[in-house]
Amino acid sequence: MKNPKVLIGVTSSFHKEYCLNEFLEGINKLTYNNFDVLFIENSKDDKYFNKLKKLGLNVIKGPCLENPVQSISASRNILIDKTLKGDYDYYFSLDQDVIPPVDVLEKLTSHKKKVVCGIYFNKMIENGKMVLTPGVYKIIEGTKDENGLPSMKALSKEEMFNNKLLRVVSCGGGCLLIHKDIIKKIRFREDLKQCEDRWFCIDLFKNNIELYCDTSVKCKHLILNRPYVWKEGQLIKREDLLKKK
Asked: How far is CA 92 from the centre of its chain?
């Protein structure tokens, strides 16, 4: 039986150039046999876009909007359109600084779920110390936040490492497999009250669409040596931020 056809959609800009080589090595090692890769490059100028083109990558120019979240959201929606027009079964949202395991698509498609994610770790500060969190959340039963949505908490250490398929309520968009039936109904929002991937998960919940996490899919997240950091919705050079301190 033929594997489902997958579009790996990558939103990218100049600030992710530092991890391009390792990302491409990861993509080239994928063992799935029915996928295409498409980059959406949304820098202000064409320098990084032209570099991707010269490497022979499948890349198109995306919009560079006032806020990076808006640019990312618009780029993800272009990838949704390409998924539907290309008659793909799934859109695999993969960030350029996320290196998935070689069998990521075999694992995620095997569950036959409409929306399923893997795990990649983010940095957070807790009690003055840096900790790594999976960025995948489950509902705290019987509670609601200020927006009337269920309160949530990150997966526990035990859940992260049990290598099972878990029902969750929210995740990032960096390693997220979405069936075409879902993106016919739900797109990414450019509302700056939340990030675009958080809005996507909220809309899944409001439409009673189940979201799952395969905790056996653990990706490398290239976050420790980022040359740029997010500050108040803008990209700032890390060295400039350190000078201010």
From this structure: 9
